[in-house]
Design a protein that fits this description.
- By secondary structure, the chain is an all-alpha fold.
- It folds into 2 domains: 77 residues, Rna Polymerase Sigma Factor, Chain: A (Orthogonal Bundle); 86 residues, Winged helix-like DNA-binding domain superfamily/Winged helix DNA-binding domain (Arc Repressor Mutant, subunit A), CATH 1.10.10.
- The protein is 68% helix and 0% strand.
- Helix 7 crosses helix 9.
- The protein is globular and about 55 Å long.
- The termini are far apart.
C-alpha cells in the first residue's frame, strides 16, 4: 500500500515530535537501547500506515500507545519473562528489597552514584510500574492519557504510580 501525502504530513505532526518520548518508553520497558530502536521503528511504520485514514486528537498519547503495544509484542516474542512481573509481590515484600549498591566514596561521584542507584531500582520495578512511571514522570502525560495508553482504569494508573514511587523510595533507602 502506497503512503500518501496526507499520511506523511500527519506523521510529521504526530510521530516525529514524539520520537524521544517513544524511545524512552520502549527503553524503560525493555531495558535495552537497541531493542527500543527496533520498537520505535515498528511503531513509526504502524503509525504511518494508520495516519492514511486517521486524524489524531491526542498525538502524544496515541503514538505512545502504539509504541507500548509494539513493545509488548516485541517482549512476547523475544523476552516473555519480562511480561510476567507480579505487582502483588511488592505488597508481600513491603515494596522492594533494598538495593545492595554502595554509594561512591568521592564527593564528585555521589550524584552519579545516586543516579546509578535510581536506575538500578527503576530496573527492578515490574514492567507495569516502569511503563506507568515513565509515561507520567518522564513523558508528562496526564493520568487520563496514561489510562488510555495502557487501556487501564484511572484508579489503576494512580495505584501503579503510588506503588512505583513507594518501591523506589524503599529501594533507595527511604529517599523521596
Amino acid at each position: 500500500m502506497a503512503i500518501g501525502e496526507t499520511a506523511r504530513r500527519r506523521f510529521q505532526a504526530v510521530a516525529l515530535p514524539n520520537l524521544d518520548a517513544a524511545f524512552s518508553l520502549a527503553k524503560a520497558m525493555t531495558g535495552s537501547a537497541a531493542d527500543a530502536e527496533d520498537i520505535v521503528q515498528e511503531a513509526c511504520l504502524r503509525a504511518l500506515a494508520a495516519l492514511e485514514s486517521l486524524e489524531v486528537q491526542h498525538p502524544r498519547a496515541w503514538f505512545l500507545t502504539i509504541t507500548r503495544n509494539c513493545a509488548l509484542s516485541f517482549l512476547a516474542r523475544r523476552r516473555p519473562e519480562l511480561l510476567h512481573d507480579d505487582i502483588s509481590d511488592l505488597e508481600r515484600e513491603g515494596a522492594l528489597e533494598a538495593c545492595d549498591l554502595a554509594p561512591d566514596a568521592e564527593a564528585g561521584l555521589i550524584a552519579a552514584g545516586e543516579a546509578a542507584r535510581l536506575r538500578a531500582c527503576f530496573a527492578k520495578l515490574p514492567l507495569a510500574l516502569r511503563e506507568t512511571l515513565t509515561l507520567r514522570v518522564l513523558q508528562g502525560l496526564a493520568y487520563r492519557d496514561i489510562a488510555g495508553a495502557l487501556q487501564a482504569p484511572l484508579g489503576t494508573v494512580m495505584s501503579r504510580l503510588a506503588r512505583a514511587r513507594a518501591a523506589l523510595a524503599v529501594c533507595m533507602g527511604g529517599m523521596a
